[in-house]
Amino acid sequence: MKITSAAAAAIGSPSVLAARVVPVVAVLTLVGVWNRTLPIIVELVVVVLLAASVLAAVHHADVVARRVGDLFGALILAVAVTVIEVGLIITLMISGGGSTSSLARDTVFAAVMITCNGILGLSLMLGALRTRVAEFNPEGTGAALATVITLATLSLVLPSFTTSAPGPNFSTPQLAFAAAASLILYALFVFVQNVRHRDSFLASPPPRRNAADGQDDGDDAHAEIPSVRAAQVSLALLTAALVAVVGLAKVESGTIEETVAAARLPQSVVGVVIALLVLLPEALAAARNARRGRTQVSLNLALGSAMASIGLTIPAIAVASIWLEGPLLLGLGPTQMVLLALTAIVGTLTVMPGRATLLQAGIHLALCAGYLFLAANP
């Protein structure tokens, strides 16, 4: 016998209760540990609270998202994740000084590679395992991929070839142009996705599977739209969780950098860690939708996260660079540009037919694995 979502809400599942308690506990912990030297046990507690706050933030963003609808909901999720990402980047750049001048580039590029290969490949794999062939709308998915590739090229590739400033840097006017172009392209995509051509980004209803097949018909059929009050509470808790994430990241910034240095890993690994942390909830949401046969929603989450990571992070970092010390290195190196170009080509060939098998999923996952390996072993 199934418990309806209304009854579950009244009882209060452990995950929902945790999502409500964690932001409050995290904020109180932040107040208690701010500007203090912490023993190792407390550091571990802070790390656990940091990860839990990220999950809680996306949970509450999802509650608000369900109140406003699927597509606007995906936008809210992407913006929430981007706020966390920008907060982590800026706090680490402030504490690290000149040694973190490439952190924004490393984090944004890591987010692009993880979403366009890791999350996308995982979504296609789960969809193909469920129905042999994962189907999606090539028009909307292709438009999202084209926007991601354009944003990545404008913000991460061109700085390696411009000549107005030495090194892989933009000059101030070039950085302003890249930031404005990124923001405008992202806003245009959001308008097209949510208003002008929203049908191109909507998933068709998944086939119902009965108990005779040994599978249920998915939890989405039983999901209810949250009330206005529930959405307002989640909005307040979302704000608290975001404050906690940024503050606790500041507390742990020195430990993160010391750990990476002690392991003799490249500084770019810090960017990978940030991207993995902030994208974990998106990966879980994408996998959940793919298992339910909603491949289109999974791809919307993956590519929307990549797009927000560039379209919102680069403008925010450009503004923050006014008071940040040291240069802002944005240009990718040769190895990274090769991986980005390969991702663009493979991604285009994957989305054009509107359907994918385990082979396409395996190719994207192999690209993600190759990127992660080369990030630690350049």
Topology, please?
Layout: H1 5-11, H2 14-33, H3 40-68, H4 70-96, H5 103-131, E1 134-135, H6 138-157, H7 172-196, H8 228-262, H9 268-291, H10 295-311, H11 313-320, H12 334-351, E2 355-356, H13 358-376
Antiparallel strand pairs: 1-2
Subcellular location: Membrane
Organism: Planotetraspora kaengkrachanensis
InterPro entries: Alkaline_pH_Ca-Antiporter, NaCa_Exmemb
Keywords:
globular, 74% helix, 378 residues, disordered N terminus, two-stranded antiparallel ribbon, NaCa_Exmemb, mainly alpha, 1% strand, A middle domain of Talin 1
Short description:
This protein has 13 helices and two strands. With 378 residues, the chain is mainly α.
CATH superfamily assignment? NCX, central ion-binding region
The name CATH uses for the topology is A middle domain of Talin 1
* Tally of domains: 1
Distance between the termini: 54 Å
Which term fits the overall shape? globular
Structural class: mainly alpha
**CATH 2nd-level architecture:** Up-down Bundle
Oligomeric grouping of the chains: single chain
CATH uppermost class:
Mainly Alpha
Number of strands: 2
Largest sheet: 2 strands, antiparallel
Provide the helix percentage. over 70%
Uncertain ranges: 1-12, 206-222
Strand order of the largest sheet: 1-2
Number of helices in the DSSP assignment: 13
Beta-strand residue percentage: under 5%
Give helix and strand order, one letter per element, not per position. Answer: HHHHHEHHHHHHHEH
Task: Give Rg in angstroms.
Answer: 21 Å
- Indicate the mean pLDDT: 81
Pfam families: Na_Ca_ex (PF01699)
Domain Sodium/calcium exchanger membrane region: 43-193, 234-374
GO molecular function, one term: potassium:proton antiporter activity
InterPro entries: Alkaline_pH_Ca-Antiporter, NaCa_Exmemb
